[in-house]
Specification:
alpha+beta, Beta-Lactamase, Helix Hairpins, Heat Shock Protein 90, 5-stranded mixed beta sheet, 4-stranded antiparallel beta sheet
């Protein structure tokens, strides 16, 4: 990336160089056009003045001499011929008629004796009739040429110096910014490589309040999440190993005891083995559930129209026997029909998992289910009188494989993780309120689809 940024600045610098050359060419061109334009205007003013010296078929020598004098002051060597081709006046004749002081001043302006080159002819007209010819060529004026040369040279030098300053400065800035801009990206890459190698403790300290700073914050959040996931994964493997080891050990012990005749009641031993098999089946079922939830994340299920009250009543009726085994109640609010359109399969799993979680952590009282509509969403509220959840634990209960510390209940900590993932893919949200020894309340908000 540093190379790309540097090359981008180089492209900008090259564009600036090109623009400088174009600017220089335009300045010199405009200057030359200006000088030529001024000379052309002056010459046509002289031409008009010479033509004005002719009247009534005669040339006014005095007026003509003044016109030639002005032409000489402008640096022009002039000769005027009449219609018959005879020379009437020239710059040399006018120079000879000037005073010594004027001659010295004139010679200070140009070098009449060094004048060379071909004359250019211009016809003279009065009312459409040609009255003669004017021949013109420039005197050599070293001072003027030197001034023009100095202007061109200074213009080029100015552009060159400005380019060196701007180009050099741009180059320094390019080096600085390529290093400055790429440095945090390099840090991110290094940190990402460490994450890829399994070091989840790496963090990026970035104080800049810009896109890179926000990216660094997101990276740190990701690293923290990966660290927690890795810890949960290790915790899960430990739990699974423990959960598998215990029933397998018990089954092995019972089988050996029956083989050795220690257990006389074979039917009782088989019953114990069946109970342990059920524990293993439950463990595998939990792993299958989280796998199914992950697959559901990428698949939007089919929706159908249901009566929410009837749906919840049927679910409560189905789960009531499990509550009666623990001496608990499960109640649902009686309300008017509420028709919604939703993914029934996902909704069933969400509500069932929350109710099962409440049943698991409730020893007396029971569970109360309420429902309703808010705007474009419907909600299902499940309140229990269970043990409650510590406030510090609430943000963690939806993590996969997370179980509240000190909990003696069986399970892998997957039920609420499945709830959160399914709620998210359905475009809803789940809220938890809880107090220790007073119970918990889970409220699920989902789009009503109507």
């Amino acid at each position: 990336m540093k190379t790309k940024i540097f090359l981008a600045f180089i492209v900008v610098i090259l564009a600036a160089v090109l623009s400088n050359f174009i600017f220089e060419w335009l300045i010199i061109k405009d200057f030359d056009n200006y000088v030529n334009g001024v000379k052309e205007d002056q010459f046509y003013w002289i031409l008009a003045s010479v033509e004005g010296s002719y009247s009534d078929g005669k040339w006014d020598t005095k007026a003509l001499s003044e016109s030639i004098h002005w032409a000489m002051m402008l640096g022009l060597d002039i000769k005027v011929f009449n219609a018959n081709g005879q020379e009437i006046i020239s710059s040399h004749e006018v120079m000879g008629s000037l005073s010594d002081t004027m001659k010295r001043r004139m010679e200070g302006l140009f070098h009449i004796h060094k004048t060379e080159g071909k004359y250019e002819a211009y016809p003279l007209y009065i009312k459409g009739k040609q009255i003669g010819m004017l021949f013109s060529r420039p005197f050599e004026k070293d001072a003027l040429k030197e001034k023009e040369s100095i202007f061109r040279r200074r213009a080029k030098n100015f552009i060159l110096v400005s380019f060196l300053i701007a180009g050099g400065g741009s180059l320094v800035i390019a080096l600085f910014f390529s290093q400055y801009l790429s440095k945090p990206i390099t840090r991110l890459k290094t940190a990402a490589d460490r994450i890829a190698s399994g070091d989840f403790n790496v963090r990026i300290i970035e104080k800049a309040d810009d896109e890179v700073g926000k990216l660094s914050e997101s990276f740190n959040t990701m690293a923290e999440s990966l660290k927690k996931e890795e810890e949960l994964r290790k915790h899960l493997m430990s739990n699974i190993a423990h959960e598998l080891r215990t029933p397998l050990t018990i089954m092995k012990t019972h089988v050996e005891a029956m083989e050795d005749g220690i257990i006389k009641d074979v039917s009782k031993g088989i019953e114990n083995i069946k109970n342990e098999i059920n524990r293993l089946t439950k463990l595998v079922k939990g792993i299958e559930d989280i796998t199914t939830a992950e697959a559901s994340f990428f698949v939007r299920g089919e929706t159908a129209e249901i009566n929410l009250g009837e749906f919840l009543s049927g679910l409560a009726k189905e789960m009531r026997p499990s509550f009666k085994e623990k001496g608990l109640d499960i109640n649902i609010s009686k309300k008017d029909d509420l028709i919604i359109i939703t993914d029934i399969e996902k909704l069933d799993k969400i509500i069932r998992n929350i109710i099962s979680n409440s049943l698991k952590f409730t020893e007396k009282g029971g569970v109360w289910i309420d429902y309703g509509i808010t705007g474009n969403n419907f909600f299902v509220e499940i309140k229990d009188s269970g043990k409650g959840i510590p406030e510090s634990e609430i943000p963690l209960i939806f993590n996969r494989f997370y179980r509240i510390e000190g909990s003696r209940t069986a399970g892998l900590g997957l039920g609420l993780a499945i709830v959160k993932e399914l709620v998210d893919i359905m475009g809803g949200r789940v809220k938890v309120e809880s107090n220790i020894n007073q119970g918990s309340k889970f409220t699920v908000h989902l789009p009503s689809g109507t």
